[in-house]
Design a protein that fits this description.
This protein has 275 residues and is an alpha+beta fold. Helices cover 53% and strands 13% of the residues. It is built from 11 helices and 5 strands; from the N terminus they run αααααααααααβββββ. It has helices at residues 3-13, 18-25, 29-36, 44-54, 58-61, 87-97, 100-124, 131-150, 156-170, 175-202, 209-213; strands spanning 217-225, 230-235, 238-244, 255-262, 265-269. Strand 4 (255-262) and strand 5 form a beta hairpin. Helix 2 (18-25) crosses helix 3 (29-36), helix 8 (131-150) runs antiparallel to helix 9 and helix 9 runs antiparallel to helix 10. The radius of gyration is 32 Å and the shape is elongated. It starts with a helix and ends in a 6-residue tail after the last strand.
Length: 275
């Protein structure tokens, strides 16, 4: 007997509906239906609970799924020797597995590191250490790390401003001029780019399942009775667990309107007007 048939037999023997069985296991009714139709298996915790609760063994549940000795191959090939990989071959395999986008990102990161190293080297040449350009480089790194951690377009503007301050510093500008350029460039880039970026990011939102089914007309596929409790409706191409908003019983085949959702359960009522 297949696992799904065995599970269905256990449920019916104990006088449970799919809804009651699902509530006991703290899963959706659709999950139980999927298991009983042999389209999936429960988690190991659920399997152990079923075995302990209903006095069955895992072998009884999965008798047909577990292959017998006759199904095992007579000769199991010996494990093949794992080839030794060199550092060069490992690095080549790593690069080949990267997507084109990630390869360009890696190349850009390497190029940016090289540029920063050249800038630092230029200001340390001859043993003289002008700390101001190094401070601007540090500011760029700090705000860049913050932006990478938050990914919210919150500090990238200060990275651009720090680049402006670094350029003024390299041209010999005074400290006050570097700070003015830093704030002007940061604020200017924020004002110019942030609204446009946020607009294009937010326009990609999609409606959720709740947005689609609320207010829709559904068909009762399993009689709704809040006192049992049991009930299901079919709407938007899916079967949902359902309850009556008013508490009254609703017969199978009735057309109802979806009022609200709690978790994976819909609350419905019979429309007053004729559909």
């Amino acid at each position: 007997m297949a696992f799904g048939d065995r599970l269905q037999e256990i449920r019916r023997t104990n006088g449970l509906t799919q809804e009651q069985f699902a509530e006991e296991l703290k899963v959706s009714r659709q999950a139980v239906s999927k298991w009983e139709s042999c389209r999936g298996y429960p988690e190991i915790e659920k399997i152990l609970y079923i075995c302990n609760r209903y006095g069955v063994t895992p072998n009884q549940l999965f008798e047909q799924e577990v292959p017998g000795c006759s199904d095992m191959p007579e000769h199991i090939p010996a494990a093949q020797e794992i080839p030794c990989s060199t550092l060069k071959s490992s690095f080549s395999a790593f690069l080949s597995n990267l997507s084109p986008r990630n390869k360009w990102l890696a190349l850009g990161a390497a190029g940016g590191t090289l540029v920063l190293s050249l800038l630092i080297g230029a200001f340390l040449k001859g043993g003289s250490a002008d700390m101001i350009p190094l401070i601007w480089v540090g500011v760029m790194v700090i705000f860049g790390v913050l932006e990478a951690a938050t990914v919210g377009l919150t500090s990238i503007w200060f990275v651009v401003g720090a680049i402006g301050g670094l350029i003024v510093s390299m041209l010999g500008g005074q400290i006050w001029l570097q700070l003015v350029v830093f704030f002007i460039v940061s604020i200017g880039s924020m004002i110019a780019a942030r609204p446009l970026v946020v607009k294009y990011i937010n326009q990609a939102t999609t409606a959720t399942n709740a947005d689609r089914v609320l207010g829709a007309i559904a068909r009762v596929t399993e009689a709704i009775d809040n006192t049992v409790p049991m009930g299901a409706v079919y709407v938007d191409g899916k079967t949902w667990s359902a309850r009556s908003e008013s508490g009254e019983k609703i017969a199978a085949g009735t057309l109802v309107r979806v009022l609200r959702m709690e978790g994976v359960r819909l609350f419905v009522e019979e429309p007053k007007e004729e559909i």
